[in-house]
Amino acid sequence: MMEIDRRAFLATLGAGSLQTMSSEDKAEALEHYLMGQLEGPKARPEGDGGEADALLDQENPQPRGTGRLLLPPRRPLEPMPEKPTFVDFFRLRFAPGNHVLQSANHALKTGQPERTVMACLLHDTVLELIKADHGWWGAQLYEPYVDERISWGIRYHQALRFYPDESVGYEYPYALYNRIFGEDYTPPDYIQRAYQYARNHSNYMEARLITLNDLYAFEQGVEVSIEPFIDIIGRNFKQPPEGLGNDNSPSAHMWRTIADANKPL
Ligand SMILES: [Fe+2]
Ligand SMILES: [Fe+2]
Fold first, then answer.
1. Which ligand has the nearest atom to the CA of 102?
2. What CATH number labels 23-40+82-259?
3. Alpha carbon distances (Å) from 197 to 139, 202, 203
4. Which of 24, 31, 36, 264 has the fewest CB atoms within 10 Å of its CB?
């Protein structure tokens, strides 16, 4: 399970900044730190994540809610095939995707329903495009192509991750947050409302299982390939024959932006 070096993490926040951070900022900082530990520094598209990249990122900081694909590209992104599939997008835009692959792998190894494996594989992929409210963005991106329970789970995992559920052994990140900052974290109102709604919904467990598998998906040095999931994707993702982005679905524009965010309008 997740281990975190409290001092190393606090050092990344910089001297004195803790006092000026809102609880929401702290919660985000903690999650980003865990992600960063797993995937390394996020380079701009095609950047190498080295010192020069870090400097450029410092000079032109992106709004924190934007994903890597919305940063000014240093070199062109890999071209997409003419009729791109979900797997093409995964390999060419969402990779390496260690976190989602690890969580899907945990769901698979522990015999959870196939749609949960699928939901785990998709749950945070939209972070490459946008981080703010990623549950809602991710749900909309996938809604036209998956079982309603999968996109529902993706939408509400964002709120549920802040709330423990002893019945399934879920306690992160309250416990973690409290341990690191020595104080309680209260999520913003809309997250509280989303949680209350989801808690009383018959699909509750769809989202809860995503947060549970999340706990096992921050392991450094563990690389999972997408290969074992190809058949599961085939059964759970309605791939449009004309390719994602060319299909006129309610989220086709989002796929086009992920393919190429460097268009003028
Ligand atoms: Fe997430
Ligand atoms: Fe996650």
1. 2
2. 1.10.3210
3. 16, 10, 10
4. 264
Q: What pLDDT, on the 0 to 100 scale, is given for residue 38?
A: 74
Distance (angstroms) between ligand 1 centre and the Cα of 3 equals 18
Ligand 2 centroid from CA 103, angstroms: 8
Which ligand places an atom closest to the C-alpha of 132?
A: 1
Task: Describe the crossing of helices 204-214 and 189-199 by its angle, rounded to 10 degrees.
Answer: 120
Indicate the burial class of 62 (C-beta count within 10 angstroms; 0-12, 13-18, 19 or more): middle
CA 238 / ligand 2 centre spacing (Å): 23
Q: Read off φ and ψ for residue 66, nearest 5 degrees.
A: -90, 155
